[in-house]
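Request:
You are asked to prepare a plain-text protein record giving the amino acid sequence and the backbone structure tokens, at your earliest convenience.
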Amino acid sequence: MYEAWFVFSPAKNNIKDAAVCIEKGMPSYGAAEAEYNFYNWTNKVLEIAGVEIERETELTNGFAFGPKVLLDPHFAMTYQDIAGSFKGKNKLGKKSSLILRDSTSFENLELNEGTFICETGTKAPGRAISFIPVEESDAEIYQIRGYKPNNV
């Protein structure tokens, strides 16, 4: 039996309906929670695989984001693939972003902040992705989440 966030996290409610659900102590089923659960799922799987994950303590629209990790199916299809890709002591900081597109392995990776894109022949460091609350003038794509990337 899995917890709901692990297998079911739809983005079906608008931001107002999501806020009402949160006030009632229910899952919001809003875009912010769905995105948070997506990153949280990946972080938990990486933790189980032995990667140290630094957790955020500040809330952004009710959620404490940590590292933002995207795992492409070309990187890993199974838990064994993921666990076999990290050797030694690996750590992802709360302000880091990691995009894993191709099969590769890491030994003693430490990414404190910034973006690391791993694909065949390319390793591109960049700026960390962090989130801030939206303003009334922001585009609808950010309004539905209640937060936006800090560089928008």
Remarks:
- The CA atoms of residues 49 and 109 lie 13 Å apart.
- Residues 12-149 form one domain.
